User: Fold these one by one.
Assistant:
Number 1:
Amino acid sequence: MAGVDSTLAYIDQGSFLGLRALGRGPLAQYAWIYERPVDFDGLRRFHHNLGRGLLGRRIERSPLPFGRDHWVAWTGPADIDIAAAPRPRAEALDWLDEQIRVPIDPEGGPSWRLAVQPFTEGGAVVTLIASHSICDGLAITLAIKQAAGGETWDLGYPQPHARTRGQALREDAAALVRAVPDFAKAIGAAVTLARNSRDELTSSAGRSAPAPAEIDESRLVTVPALVAYIDEDQWQQRMESLGGTSNSLFAGIAAKLGQEQGRVDDTGRVRLQFPVSERTEGDTRANALTGMTVSIDPVNVTQTLRDVRAELKKNLAALSESRFELLGPVALAPLIPPGLARRLEGMALGAGAPIGCSNLGKLDPAVNRPDGTDADHIVVRQLESRITADILDRLGGTLFLAAGQVNGEVSLSVSAWRPGGPNSKDLLKASIGEVLDEFGLTATIE
């Protein structure tokens, strides 16, 4: 793979620059709960393989102002982070929350890490956490599948600091000149987007982020987050009886929970934001995706999913047009100064109180086998790494749902923060339990 282009794709450049401008960013987290001891030899093979696939990289910045950054090879931390002392099984989710606080950095490293917490009862919880600037949901899922299956993937990236400063300046300057046509097209797309999104720009302006500062550790908060395990057969039967699909049942639950959390507009509707993968065979982008926003009336979703299903289908059909509007300006990412990036955060979230949704659907069985054997439960989450109550309140709170199906079980993760509170896991557990009960679903809530 000599001569491979290590330049970040525009969307990945935007993700990284946003992280630096804000001083924080989302993390992708997988976790596996074993009700028996894990095979540490198997986990170390998994860890070794992870560093030789899509996760095997870090970002090296261009020395040129407004130059595009590059990928460099990085095989990961020296070893798995194993907790010194066991903890009770009941504290599994608390430990997963704590792991989100451990620093992750796509440039300085570690860009990802694998950690294990043994249980006093004899089992263990394993977690893999990575910067979203390194991988989106499908990328980390693919990396896990390949690593668990013993596959490696040489991306062909150079070692860190392989280019001299002079070489980097010359190469990146030439690339900047070649990108001028991309900038011209992106400016036109940005003008169109601004014109079509005038109302959202106006309503989002007040949510602009201040310049990042040294965070007072005592002010950091953990967004309440829980996981519900639902029998896959029960999930299937319920979606069919409501005239829906797995994705529309997931959307219906998100809509109902959004209504319960007060995330509705003046008409009582909720706005669900879905990532839509564009990942192709051999795709090495960290974020190979676009997105769609779906407006749902949550009133009758527990009686029928036909309207939800139709709305999802309609938005997917119209995706090519909305995709251009959404991704057309991304070539401007290297040119955006940090101050403007912070002002754009509110617009990226959209007007009102959107609900983040990520349904990975049926997972390859290998994704549930980090030590080579099936875990009893899998957890899929996306959470902000280091955030305060003030930031969450300014952004209008958050509600994010993620799901995956494997080993006969649907794992549904929910994280939520109400602006001004109250916020707690107990309150969130009551909300999730009530909504699932309305759908006729029985779940074990972690």
Number 2:
Amino acid sequence: MGILNKLKDQFQSPSPSYDFPSSTHPTPLGPNAVFRYRYQRGVNLGSWFTLERWIASHPFRNAAQPGQSDFDVASGKDAKKVLEEHWDTWMNEGDWRWIKERGFNSVRIPISYYHLCGPLPEVLKGTEFEPYHHIFEGAWGRIKQAIEMAGYFGLGVLIDLHAAAGAQNADAHSGLSKGKIGFWDKHSNLASTSLALRFLASELSRIPHVVGLELLNEPANNSKLQGWYHSIIAEIRGIVPSDFPLYISDAWDTQHYAGFVGARDDFVVLDHHLYRCFTEQDRQKDGYAHANEIRSGFRRSFSGQSDAAKGNIVTGEWSGSLDPRSFPPNIPDTQKDAHRREFVKAQLELFEEKTAGYWFWTYKKQDGWDAGWSAKDAGRAEILPQWVGGKRYRGEPPVGVKDGEIKGAYDAHTSYWSSHGGSPDPTVFAPGFSQGWDDSLLFLSHPSGPSKLGFTDQWMKKRKIEFESGAHKKLGKAAWEWEHGFRQGVEASLKVCTV
């Protein structure tokens, strides 16, 4: 806890009134931008702030009935003491080191609108949590400490609004146990959520290692959701730049929202959650069958969705969990682990090939052994690989290697197109290749640890603008040649410069 204690004195809670500053200038591409554009390999810090009883039961010891949600905890005895004790002890320095040493480069932190009431009291106005300001007023300071602690270890942070006013889904992790979706029912719910998201975007966009803001976790899909996405993104873009990543849930309709994301020019990312343990159909397949399905039919459909989103797609939640009925009867635990291991392997293969990142749900559980849901237990059981961080950076290659790679790729490019009808302007291929190579090394050599470019299309958009400005020419119909060169430069550098 030593580092945590040192950090506590560095952060003061903002004043109760909040003015939204205008910060709409895009961030120049460079080392600070690497956090947001790199391939994200992460874990969720579930039940740290937004509680789930099956993950952490101790904070529910005095909760009011039915004892399943943050509202129930807040309604119970000694709620402020219980919550602050949990917030201060759930993560320690050893936990952060474990995450970093396994090769993860980011964490997703689920929080809720009521956790913002310290600096933003009006966020509770007209909501179920309005009477509980005194209980949650200390949460935001601790969330800021969590963000800083992650940065100390070179980890990116995705902040996820897991619970919105009124509840955006019927699960207790939306803050309420009533099983009713009330998010759309009152203007005060929408106003609270808008205020919360604008506040978070304004605060977080200034911190380079904050990789994005997720607008709403797993909202129930309806005819209003897409319109709300349009309007809330427009509100946020009025105060933060278009290259600050905003993550949206696919609301279990991946194909539709992949097209929604792919049609946008700003940095919006689609979050798909992949679980195979909740339906009757899931229960009829063992781990190997699930793995085979992921590698075949699901891979093909997901590939199309990734293409529709122009690569701006992640898996914000996934696990190694299988329903107990998925296993053949009477098999030993070691064989169950083998099923989970193959299931996890298939998922990781898919994510590395077709997404820009993932976050395992969840980092740890309070009680008992659970190698399906706890990353720490899955690591001990070697269900999760000992190292998830991808290939290691071997250093910049000798002088002349890059030039040789460019020449070989350029000769192959021009030879192919000369026999296939020609191309608009082959001279732009080599500059694209060179830029892709250099940018890939920027990611591989980053001080926070080696990584690869994840949001390639989003990064290329900005680099193309820079190239056109510097070369004083529009790429026009030759844009695809520059892009081909860029992609090949990235791929070549990964082959040459990693092991």
Number 3:
Amino acid sequence: MSNTISKSMDSEKKYELTNTPSCLEGEICDHTPANSPGSNEALIQDAIEAIGMGRYQWKLMASCGFGFIADQMLLASISLVMPQASKEFSPQYATLLSAAQYAGLAVGAVFFGFVSDLIGRRLTWQVSIFGVSIFTAAGAGSSTWATLNVFIGIAAFFGGGNSFEQLADENLVAIDLTVFAECLPRRWGFLLTGLVCLWGLGSAITGLIAWPLVVNFCCPQNATSATCSKADNMGWRYLYIILGVFCLLMSILRTFVLGMSESPKWLASQGNREEAVVSINTISRVNKSAYTMSIDQLHERPTESKNLKSAFNMVINLFRGNQQVRSMICLIFIWLLVGIAYPVYQVFLTYYLEANGVRLGDGSVYKTYRDFCISAVVSIFGPILSSYLVEIHFLGRRRSITFMAWGCSICAGSFTAVKTEAQSLALSCMINFFLNAMYAVIYG
């Protein structure tokens, strides 16, 4: 399968090089040719190139990084909370809690994706992480398993609007990366790939917070609702409260301290030339650049009405032309397989480590969460390697993703045959390393 996708992508790369210039990493491509007099987005990009990389982009990168951290906290926490909360509530199917989360993520991704095109990036960007913080903390007060599922689903709904794949600017990208990419000079595009390292940081932070809380404030292994009371099982609740407060602080920092202007490319695509010019000049001023844009540099064009029909046409545009259709099919197929593999591995990892620990070690909760934290820290470095590899001409994004996918597959297959506790930990670390490295290339 990997070879088929790689060959398809390689032929696409050859087509791009011989027929049209391929988009650089970080460039938001327009269906209108870059040299077309109607392409205001191309003129905005030229302005960003003239301004260059500076303080505004670095602050924006930090703000987007908060989104990645919050997103991964939400995902990592479910695998840490689920085993502990199930002791207290004794549900028939404990692992279905992850289904509530992914259902919320799916609905949120579609909803916020279209909303970001209708009302802009800035408000959607700010509301998403705020919603995650409120409903994550609220989940700590759950008195029943059904209530916990509801709060997890709502928090995930807002999480879907933060760092999950969205439909924006006729590209399947994430809102955080869209905001960052639309203000980024082309040659700095590798930062889009490297930014994903913060997923590993989010997992590590969540694991380090959960580790002492679960060990000291949760019911022992093999406990049931008959022997595990709320008072004896407060650890996972403390975790959700701390994560909620942490996300709230990040939302306040990125809204009131770091801040951002509305995306100039989005404004230009809406026909708001005056606001787009103001946004560009704000970026220039923050970067202490001498560049100034005037409204005369942008072409006046009619504003398209945003409705269900235009949204449908936007989706259709993703599948126009043989090369585009093939690329979209490959990307959708990759994300489909990732969507299956990720929860099967990540959500059930603590269950596997705990169960496997009985055979490979002492099976203690302490070692289970220790191993989780170690593998999370190792995963930080995968996207950093990817950000370097995608800049190598021979590898690019296509061969880099193939290399990372094979690495992840080999380590995952080997994981089923481990004989010692050290082997289990080492392969768990390598799986997370290659997994995040592969994600980084896809998102970038």
